[in-house]
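S.,

Sequence below, as promised.
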Amino acid sequence: MIFENAKRRLHAVGVLLENISATGISNNTKSSYYRSVLILLSTIVEGLVYELVRRSTISTGHVVDEKTEHAEKYKIPAAVLGAKNDYYLCEKTKKKVLIADNGVTFGVLNNYLKNKRIVSLAEYKLLDWSRKERNKLHLQSLTLPDTGYTKSKIDKMGSAVFFLLKKMT
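The prediction came back faster than expected:
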């Protein structure tokens, strides 16, 4: 399904790029079209990263990470020890993080690919740049005007799409 969805989004990218090439379009309008193209391409990159991780993990859960959790077992009141604060005895456990768990982000998946040497450091940097560009979708996190989208950014994001597709074929 991921490839069918990617194909549809790539078609939409083509339509937007045709509009950009029309004469008489202002730079602000071009930047808006480029932003839309980046959004579409970044969703393709994220989906392909997910698929590459899924293919490279064991199907029983698709473990992508392991995290340490601490569970409080017993509270020692401060007064008992003559301390300012309470003390706690905790149990430390390791929990497997699965690809479908909440909190498994584009960044976590990128790190998995890097740590397992599925992608090179240069490829990882490209994926991380793609993640950061994708995060600009979140208007509330922007600290500067949402402008400056260019063809060079489109080309860079497109190169991430193509290297991921090549890795999977």
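DSSP finds six helices and two strands in the chain.

Coffee later?
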